[in-house]
Each structure stands twice: as C-alpha cells, then as structure tokens.
Amino acid sequence: MNTTFKKTLVASALFAFAGAAQAATISAGTEHELTSQYLSSTGANHTMANDFAVTLGAEYVVNDTMTLTFTQPLAAAVTADIIVAAVEGVGAAAKKGVTFSVISGGAIGDSSVTYRLTTVTNTVGGAGNATPGVTSGIVLPLPTFQVLKSNLTGGATVSFSAKTNTGLDLDTSGGTARTRSLAKAVQQFTITSPSIARVIDVNADRKSFVDLDVNNANANDFKVIGTFNIATLTTAGVVYARPINGAAGVKHTLTGDFSWVVDNDTVTTGLQPKAGVFATTGTCANPVWAYSTTAVSLTCDAVAADTAIVIDPEANKAGVAVASQAILPSTTFTATSTVTYTGPAATESVINAASAGAWTLNGSVVRVPYMVMKDGRFGTILNVTNHSSQSANVVFDLFDENGTKLQSNYAAGTAAAGSVHSIAGFVRDALVASGKDVVNSNVKYSLQITTNAPANDVIVYSAYTDQNNGGERAIVNNDSKVQTK
C-alpha cells in the first residue's frame, strides 16, 4: 500500500508538471511610443528596448528550434547566440544551461530569425536534488532589434514559435503572450483649433459685435478670443518625439478679411494696427506679430494649450471720428499653426487651414445672382423694402460676370423704416466707377446687398426689363427671406 501511495504521488506530480508546461511567453518588455514626426527625424534606424525575453514552457532537447517573427524587417543583423547558464536548485528550481544559435534569418531585411538548441548543460544536483534540471521556466534574454524608421509608421511586434527536432509544433500554449509589441505609433500633438465666430450688430451700424452679455459690462464683451490649444509629447523614457525649435518654434495664423483694421502708421510699409486691436493671452514666450489685410500671425517660442489671439475692434476706433469708423465685414476665418523642428530643421502645419468660424450679421444679406444693364435697352429694378421700425443704411458688393469683385461696401443710401428704397442708380454708378461701359455694352453682373436691419424685415426685389421685347420684365430670384417670384 505504501508503494501504491508513492506511485500515485509520482503520477500526480508528473500530471501537474505536464499541465504547467507547454506555455512559452514573451515578456511584456518596454513598448516604445514613436511619433510620425520622430520617424521623419535624423537617423535611419530605431533601436527597440533590450528588455524583452522568452520564458520557455516546455522541455527542449538538442536540435529543437525556436523562431522569432517580426512584422517589420530587421535593419541590423541578429547573429549572436542566446546563452543561459545552468541554475542549481531543488526540483523544478534546477534549470539546465542552454545555448541557442542562429541557423537562419536574422540578416538585414529579414523578418524572422530561427535559433537551434545546440547545447544543453545539466545541473550537478545539489543536496536533496538528484534531478538534472529542466528547461521549462528558463528565461532567454532577447537581443536588441533595430528597424528602419520608415517601416515603423504602423508600429512593430515580435512573435514566438518553436518546433521539435522532428518538425512538430512545440511550446504552443502561451496564447496572446506569444506576441508582444515592440513599438507603436502615437500622435505627437493633441489640438483644438480656435474659433473666433461672432455676430456683427447692424444696430451698431456694423461697427461692433453683438454684446455677449447685455446685462453686464464686461471688458471682453466686444472682443473675440481664439485659443490655439496645442499640447505636444516630449522625448522622455519610452516616448520618442521630434524636438521643436527652442526659439520661434510655432507660428499661429488667422486668415480672413482684416481690411477693416486701421493702419496706424501709413509711412511704414505694411499694416500697423492701433494699440490693443490685437493682443495675446495665455502662454507665448517672446511674441512676434505680423499683420496684413488678409492674415494676422503670432509667433511664439513653444506650443501651449492656452495661447490665444485676442481681437478688439473697439480699439480700432480710437481717435477716429464716428462717421469714419470701419465697418466690420462678414467673413470666414481659417486657422493654421506651423511648428519648426530640429534634427533636421523642418516645418509642419499641425493645424492646417482649419475652420475658425465666421463673422455674420444679425441683419440682412441678400445675394442677387445675375443682372444685366445697358442704357436704352436693359432697365434695372433693385428695390430694398425695409419693414423694420428703424432706418437702415444699405451697401453692396459688386461682381462682374467672371466673379471678380468690382466694389466692396459701396454705399447705396438709406432705406427708411417702412419704405421701398431703390438702389438701381447706385449700382449703375458703381459699374461706371469700375470702368464698365453701360452705354454701349451689355454689362452682366451680380451683387450682394447688405441692409442694417433684421433679415426677417427686409425684402429685396430684383428684375430687369428688355426694351427689345416690348419692355418685358424678367424677375431674378434672390435669397431674401421673403421674395416675389
């Protein structure tokens, strides 16, 4: 019975050992995080972390093989043996010594390397241990791998497999731990584009924005603040990012219609705004400004999550007579942020012409898509009906048939409250002032009419007559809120 009991213990031990084996894994190691900007930087190769290892989960004998397979080809050869010395111990703690040698692959351009177990060294066996040791549990330190940066935009992994010396699969139960990520691609920047969307107030003759808070006097109510929220990863530990130039590293630009900005120094070339029209808040070391009628830019030493361009049209009025104060145009804006890298020097628009909102009117803007004029033949009917309780100035933008703007904000008189106001004569004057011969030629054009009254209270009637057809009237549909068809 004692013998039977001992045999049962031995069988149970062997069964337990067999259940724990057959489970080779690759240690998690240190996964590198690589930005696309870093992958475009100096140096052809990237060297992975050297802390990956394979833990064997089966009993290996001479001529068994193991293979490491990569999702990207090697950029440096892998040729060295993997050698692990024997470890004395009791029972399964006793480990054999092994040497795995490269037998195929591992050259530059290869996507795998295969090792053969060439040497097995048994332990001597310490006190109370008559076993020669096992290979299950041996940790094989993997060599350092290099991959071309150009091949790492999708990251890289390494996978393990093994076969017996007779070609059968070996050590197969490691599951997902038989594959590990060596590197992954990450974003260098997280961004939020600015928005400077505002509503221009027709009740203020389009010279101010609608008050953001009519119940409070707030210094920022009539300003727009566009924040360029850009955060960048920095090179540290497992993160590989491309350095940004330490001086003038980022340039933020708003593009749109800035023709309303008063030039405070007409002697100096370019546009010089009045004090306070443009300012910056948040983080911007060593700010440098550049201005034109179509773009405003701010250069800072570094990106930041709170760098803002502040626009204050009220400051544009300083020292200007009320009648001469600029009208704010309806316009759309885009935002661009360009960073400058080192290693080597290069630039990239991390915000690239993104929408930054629009300045719109709380009044009437009506587009008339087509008209024709010629004295003696084509008569013009362009009537603005103002149903509001306030008189409203009328201006228009004029375009030729090719879309070229001939006039901008051309004054077309005042539409009195409750009246019908004709702007046909103003349009004729604008065409003549633009060099168009309305006496001898058929002049085709379009226009955009702006009325300083609520859109729902303004109707534009557009038509022309043709004397060659008995004065027949052709109604031109426009985009009034209400119109006569």
Q: Can you put this structure into words, describing what you see?
A:
The protein is mostly beta strands and 485 residues long. 7% of the residues lie in helices and 41% in strands. The chain is built from three helices and 32 strands. It has helices at 2-20, 36-39, 424-433; strands spanning 25-26, 32-35, 45-47, 53-55, 65-70, 82-84, 97-105, 112-121, 139-141, 146-148, 156-163, 169-170, 179-186, 189-192, 198-200, 224-232, 239-240, 250-255, 278-281, 288-291, 295-300, 307-311, 331-341, 346-361, 364-373, 378-386, 392-400, 405-415, 420-422, 443-451, 458-466, 472-475. The strands form seven sheets. Strands 2, 5, 6, 7, 8, 11, 12, 13 and 17 form a nine-stranded mixed beta sheet that branches. The chain has a six-stranded mixed beta sheet with strand order 15-24-23-18-21-20, with no helix packed on it. The protein has a four-stranded antiparallel beta sheet with strand order 14-16-22-19, with no helix packed on it. A hairpin with a 3-residue loop joins strand 20 and strand 21. The longest helix is centred in the first third of the chain and has 19 residues, at 2-20. The termini are far apart.
Mean pLDDT: 91
Low-confidence stretches: 1-21
The class by helix and strand makeup works out as mainly beta
How widely separated are the two ends? 111 Å
Radius of gyration: 39 Å
Would you report the number of β strands? 32
Estimate the global geometry from the Cα principal axes. elongated
Helix count, per DSSP? Answer: 3
Relative strand content: 35-45%
User: What about the largest sheet?
Assistant: 9 strands, mixed
The percent range for helix content is under 10%
